[in-house]
Amino acid sequence: MPFPHHIRRHQFTYRIKKEWGQLYWFNFGAPSSGQRTFAEQHPALIISNPSITLRGTVLIIPVTGAEHRRPGYEFHVEIPKLECPELDK
Predict the structure, then answer these.
(1) pLDDT in tens, 39-64
(2) Which neighbouring-strand residues pair with 60?
């Protein structure tokens, strides 16, 4: 899922209340040299309940395509298009 072109990078802010189960774009930062990691803007799923966690603390997991799935990582879960059509690439 590419970053929306109609949003300028300097306007990359959130104006909605974050809630458990929401999908939203998150900036994971710049990749370090030689580091195999998630970086730049990607969709993320909120897995914490911000209304009961520490102020400013939101636990998220990145959402990526099936091509990035790695064997041995049980937390890599495939989400079928039928369950979440808005994530269709």
Answers:
(1) 777 788 888 876 777 776 778 888 77
(2) 46
Report the pLDDT value the prediction gives residue 61, as an integer from 0 to 100: 81
Cα 12 from Cα 7, distance rounded (Å) = 7
What letter represents residue 76's amino acid? Answer: H
| Cβ contact 50:44 at 8 Å | no
Q: How many domains does the chain have?
A: 1
Q: 52 and 39 in contact (C-beta within 8 Å)?
A: no
Task: Give the Cα separation of 55 and 47 in Å (integer).
Answer: 15
Among candidates 66, 68, 67, 49, which has minimal Cα distance to 58?
A: 49
Predicted local distance difference test score (pLDDT) of residue 74: 63
Question: 0.70 cut: is pTM over it?
Answer: no
Question: Which residue range forms the structural domain that includes residue 69?
Answer: 1-89
